[in-house]
Amino acid sequence: MSGFAGKILYVDLTSGRIEAKPLQADFARKYIGGLGFGTKIYLDLIKDNPHFDALSEDNPFVLMTGPTTGFRVSGTARWCVGTKSPLTGYWGDANVGGFFGARLKFAGYDGIVITGAAKKPVYLFIDDDKVEIRDGGKYWGKDTYETNDEMLADLKTEGAKQGEVLTIGPAGETLVKFASILTRKGHAAGRTGMGAVWGSKKLKAIFVRGSKKLEAAGQADLDTLRGELKEIYKDHISVEVLKTLGTACHWDAGLVSGDLPIKNWSQAEWDQIDEIGPIAYEEKLKVGSRTCYGCTVACKMIAEVKDGQFRFDKGAGPEYETMCSFGTMCLNSNMESIGKANDICNRYGMDTITCGSTIAFAIECFENGLITKEDTDGIELGWGNAEAIIAMTEKIGKQEGFGKVLAEGSAGAAKKIGGNAVDYLSTVKGLEAPMHDPRGAHGYGLAYAVSPRGACHGASLNFSIEGGNMYFPEIPEFTEEFEEQTSEGRAALNVACQDFGMFFSSCAVYCHLGAMPMTATQAVDLVNYVTGFDYTIDELMQLGRRIWYLKRGLSNLFGARAEHDKLPRKLTTPLEDGPTAGSVPDMELMLKEFYELRRLNADGLPSTEILGEMGLEDLAALLYSNGG
Amino acid sequence: MGTFKDTEQLIGVIGGFIQKLADTEAIAEKMVASNLIFRMVYKDPEGVIVVDCSGDKPEVRPGDTDTDAAITLSMGADIAHKFWFGKVNLTMALTRRKMVAKGPIPKILKLLPVIKPAYAMYPKYLEENGFSEFNTY
Fold first, then answer.
1. To bridge A611 with a disulfide, which of A128, A292, A620, B117 should be the other Cys (CB 3.0-4.6 Å)?
2. Which residues in A lie closer than 8 A to residue B113 (C-beta atoms)?
3. How far is B53 from chain A, CA to nearest CA, in Å?
4. Partner-chain contact A467 B96, CB within 8 Å
5. What ipTM was assigned to the predicted interfaces of this complex?
6. Does A481 lie at the interface with B, CB-CB under 8 angstroms?
7. CA-nearest residue of chain B to A482?
8. Residue B45 preceded by cis peptide, ω within 30
9. Contact predicate A197/A241, CB 8 Å
10. With pLDDT > 70 as the criterion, what percentage of chain B qualifies?
11. What confidence tens digit (pLDDT) does each residue in B106-115 have?
12. Which residues of B fall within a CB distance of 8 Å from A279?
């Protein structure tokens, strides 16, 4: 089968059973790849028993590549993971870059499905057709960087080709609710606690090495498209800024538009903001850059601080999200400490958005007397106290002292802290909002509220389209010049962004950064040239729609309802000044329109009719016969 | 029909406003700190304005096509007008090539917060300088 490796690996950690099942062509066409495959397989696995804890052995874990992963086109290195999230209790997923996805396909697998749980720490060894569950005790307790390096060294002599390691750190092992999974010491499946699910399964890592070649159905067409894209990328401003600044390139535009959150979403301006912007990054942190498989954009920064209390070894530098979550959100103007916090999160394996946001939340609780130094192990949690921020980040990673409370994420911590701690949350469905303010672009608010995994700017293409990073002139809903602070028309926009976004981000798993310059036609053509399918944009939007309902339905199955489709008070309180002064999204309007368009009932469940039209009768039966 | 009827009007309004920014101490200081030379190239109607921040104070030179500029920003005149109201999504304008920027991008981006105060100044400038007919976008 062209484009795909042709097999999905099923690994049961309880029994030790390993099976490679062929990928069926009609399944591949219908579900495209990535989380298209992942959500369908996941649903089929749980449908007889959909009620279980995210950290129980009954929670399957899916890891899936896209049809174009491994074909050396910029923006196509990504792959994704999905499972029930221990942080939110709903569907959780994450996209990851790096080289792991390509290597997995070279080994002969489009994805891996992991079920059960091991009794002792293990790692999964994959070298082409040789797949083994091996003793992982040696690596248990080590951070992700140590594990990566040691495992590669240990397994180097077993094969000729280069291997890749995907690993959790101590945070995953100790079940920090927002633990991540990392590859190549800096590409992270960051959000929703995927690492904790591995920890609960005693799965430390996956090593993969492969020697097979992928075949494109239309190699000549693929080569021509590659050439076209190469020309476009030479001159494209987004490529240029990403190459130079990484995701920090969004900083100044975000500041001017009011997109960038300050002081736990409560402030519009900050006179120290230049201390931690992209220029400070270049001066104080950046020592180089690196890329993902086959991508010429190379937007990943490499950072180092050689001396001082926040020193850290050369490694992955903080992204824009981390600069905000540990920087502006905490009024922390110390650039080096932001790099350090990023390093700690990477090594322990923790989501930087949730970690930084949770610390910002804790600072606000501290300021308002809900917690004291007695609670925080003597740490003075104050705005801009870089030492305290770093100390608390470490404590979270170790699940030590007050770090144990914050390891629940901010929503879980709020329950334990009590009082009016919930007023300081920035979560939707338990997931902290990313660093893009919906008061500046109202459609983001709807996107966060209805995203199946919680507040997320990557769950659809809404951030990219309404924010202006991407432009698909072929799709009429995307061609408007969006005025930034209105809620009119944003429901329809979100629907289109979800439909096309499910194809683009979740199934084809294109990178929102590396694939930014592509048109919709090129994105579709690329999949067709690789697979030999003959998708059209319209068909892919229909297929994407089905995947959206699958994700939505899984969250509904796990208990998500209309009452959870809402923004926290933090994001609906207008700021008094700044670019978004007085502006808040009209959630009532947008939700009403969205529910009508998506045919969700008053409970927030998709109607049986729409699920039937989507071919999701199984899901409908589960949602309605069991009461969800 | 666009905002400006001809080059003279474009330069009079937009050029005049850029001169005002150059005369505003707090903004001028930061422009000079950038040490950059910009060329703004407009169309519909056509026009060129160079902003030279390489000296002790910013110099605004309409029609200058000779000076070697580190940064060139090309855009329609209507976009330029709307930009100074703070109503252009810069990211979107660049992505859709309604604005084209050439030059050291980080330095261009760094100037955004510097010129942010201009957004509140523009409507006032239009009213005070007999350009109230343009106080809309």
1. A620
2. 252, 255-256, 273-274
3. 19
4. no
5. 0.88
6. yes
7. B89
8. yes
9. no
10. 100
11. 778 878 888 8
12. 106, 110
What pLDDT, on the 0 to 100 scale, is given for residue A626?
55
Residue A628's pLDDT is 47
Smallest CA–CA distance, residue B124 to chain A, in Å, is: 18
Q: Which residue has the tokens 């089929």?
A: A44
How many CB atoms sit inside 10 A of residue B39's CB?
22
Mean pLDDT, rounded, for B34-42: 94
DSSP assignment string, A305-342: E-SSTT-EEEEEPPPHHHHHHTTGGGT---HHHHHHHH
A498-517 residue pLDDT tens: 999 999 999 999 999 999 99
Task: Compute the distance between CA of residue A165 and CA of residue A574 in angstroms, rounded to an integer.
Answer: 45
Q: Does A438 touch chain B (CB under 8 A)?
A: no
Which residue from A197, A352, A192, A331 is spatially nearest to A264, judged by alpha carbons?
A331
Question: Which residues make Cβ contacts (< 8 Å) with residue A385, sequence separation at least 6?
Answer: A332
Query: Rounded to whole angstroms, how far apart are CA atoms A516 and A465?
Result: 10
Cβ(A262)–Cβ(A328) below 8 Å = yes
Q: A533 vs A133, A529, B104, CA distance in Å?
A: 35, 7, 42
Interchain proximity A237–B92, CB inside 8 Å: no
B-chain residues within 8 Å CB-CB of A278? 106, 109-110
Q: Yes or no: say if A391 and A309 are a contact pair by the CB < 8 Å rule.
A: no
For chain A, residues with pLDDT lower than 50 are 628
Structure tokens at B128: 């005070």
Looking at chain A, which residue has its C-alpha nearest residue B96?
Answer: A471
From the list B100, B101, B113, the residue facing A255 with the nearest CB is B113
Q: What are phi and psi of A145, to 5 degrees?
A: -70, -45
Q: Which of the pair, B33 or A530, is modelled with greater confidence?
A: A530
What is the three-class DSSP state of A79? strand
Determine how β-strand B37-43 pairs with β-strand B71-76.
parallel
Using one digit for the tens of pLDDT, what is the confidence trace for A581-610?
A: 999 999 999 999 999 999 999 999 999 999
Closest-CA residue of A relative to B117 is A256
Q: Is A244 on the interface with B (CB under 8 A)?
A: yes
